[in-house]
Amino acid sequence: MSVKRALLTTGLAIISIIGIIAIFTTWYTVDESEQAVVITFGQATETITDAGLNFKLPWPVQKVEILSKETYSLQFGYKTTKDGEIVTKDSETKMITGDENIVLTDLVVQYKISDPVKYLFQSEDPKQLLHHATSSAIRSIIGSSTIDEALTDGRADIEQKTRDLLVSVMEDYDIGVTILAVKLQDVELPNAEVRAAFTAVTDARETKNTKINEAKKYENQKISEAQGEKDAIISRAEGEKIARIQQAEGDVALFNKLYNAYVGNREITRQRLVLETLEEVLPGAQIYIMNDNGETLKYLPLQPQTVQQNTEKERKEGGGSQ
């Protein structure tokens, strides 16, 4: 009786455990930032990308692997501890450039899991595989670059080439990973003296670029001033041109009027032109008009009345003084 009771108790306990496991392993929740793969007897049978509560067969028939949709960051050449301390890995960071110099290079690779099934089943350790691919890509690009490019203005080009090469390698591996970006964190020389020398070279290059920019600014300023002066001269010339054309047109109109008057009465017009010319050429002279026979002298003062009065006054004063 005691043996049967013990067996019954054991059976009930096993059934209870199985029931509890079934209750707690038949449902799972997927957040907005997550995706899940349902695995049945070791094979992926379903991919869940929508958020919400889902149900499955109890363990060990089915299990669920939940992966993040967010961006992952792979640190190469260093690692950040839980306390926020950065620990460098010199064995990873030392690389040889194309001109046979040693540099210390570390970077960050940003990636996403684009195919969770491939990520889980195509590789035993996809993170380690990505790490090795990153090492191969950056060493290849650094090995084809000069030390000057690695330390100064070639960093962006190195990042782009490393990303392109890493994307190509990961496509060949086909482990469900998409490379988003490669960012160099630090590229420096292992020797402090050499590092200081390259810093001086960099400063000199920046100074050179600054001087070039200042010279271009001064050149543009002078060109702008010369252009403005040229435009002003052209504007004045255009104004003078218009003025002279208008003056010439006025002279032509006046000449035409005189010509028409001359054609209508040639003798009077001729005498008038002679008198006006004499007044213009000899503004201070007294002009007398005599008849042709010379017997009787008659004169006509052609100066304004004020000039005639002044002349008579001077004559009287001169007579009085004698």
Topology overview:
Blueprint (H helix, E strand, L loop, with lengths): L1 H23 L2 E4 L3 E7 L2 E6 L3 E4 L6 E7 L3 E5 L1 E3 L5 E3 L1 H4 E3 L5 E12 L2 H6 L4 H18 L3 H5 L3 H19 L3 E12 L3 H73 L1 H16 L23 H17 L1
Antiparallel strand pairs: 1-4, 2-3, 2-5, 6-10, 7-8, 9-10, 10-11
Helix pairs in contact: 4-6, 7-8
Question: Care to describe what's here?
Answer:
With 322 residues, the protein is an alpha+beta fold. Helices cover 56% and strands 20% of the residues. It is built from nine helices and eleven strands. It has helices at 2-24, 90-93, 116-121, 126-143, 147-151, 155-173, 192-264, 266-281, 305-321, and strands at residues 27-30, 34-40, 43-48, 52-55, 62-68, 72-76, 78-80, 86-88, 94-96, 102-113, 177-188. The strands form four sheets. Strands 6, 9, 10 and 11 form a four-stranded antiparallel sheet that branches. It has a three-stranded antiparallel sheet with strand order 3-2-5, with no helix packed on it. It has a two-stranded antiparallel ribbon with strand order 1-4. Helix 4 (126-143) crosses helix 6 (155-173) and helix 7 (192-264) packs across helix 8. The chain is elongated.
